[in-house]
Design brief:
The chain is α+β, with helices and mostly antiparallel strands. 44% of the residues lie in helices and 29% in strands.
């Protein structure tokens, strides 16, 4: 019984993760057609943090200011797939592309100009969340079966 409850909890978590990833993927896809404006980078650095047993994590932190129809906004979203990594080099490369005081092309959501990105479209980060969520769902479904039940399922499938 405990195994089935744990599997059900993992399935629900996987579905939530898949839904969140799908939302991010859809937003990333839609951002390709967003209007653009010019912005200015206010801050650009590599943030270092500690993440549990995985050790150091690095993230490019790029803040930029821009205006839409006379209103001023600030954002730090580079893309919909922003993610921290265990390696400093990718974050450093992103920061090198956006030095402080440089002009950048900002893509903003016309329905909500506060939502903006510098890089449009799907990235590994935006699509990867969906894949992880689906993996959790598949694993939870398999975890709900005993080894004997899995063996019977495999025999029926072949």
């Amino acid at each position: 019984m405990k195994t089935r409850l744990g599997a059900l909890a993992a399935l629900l978590a996987g579905l939530v993760l898949t839904g969140f990833g799908a939302w991010k993927t859809l937003a990333a896809w839609e951002s390709r057609s967003w209007p653009v404006t010019t912005g200015v980078v206010q801050r650009s650095l590599v943030e270092r943090g500690v993440h549990g047993r995985h050790g150091r994590r690095y993230r490019a932190q790029v803040e930029y200011a821009y205006s839409v129809d006379g209103s001023y906004y600030r954002s730090s979203r580079i893309s919909f797939g922003d993610a921290a990594t265990g390696f400093r080099a990718p974050a450093k490369w992103i920061v090198s592309r956006y030095p402080v005081a440089s002009e950048v092309v900002v893509h903003y959501d016309p329905a909500d100009p506060e939502s903006a990105v510098l890089v449009t479209g799907m990235t590994i980060g935006s699509g990867g969340i969906v894949l992880v969520g689906l993996g959790v769902c598949a694993g939870s479904l398999l975890a709900g079966y005993s080894p004997r039940q899995l063996e019977r399922l495999m025999r029926r499938a072949t």
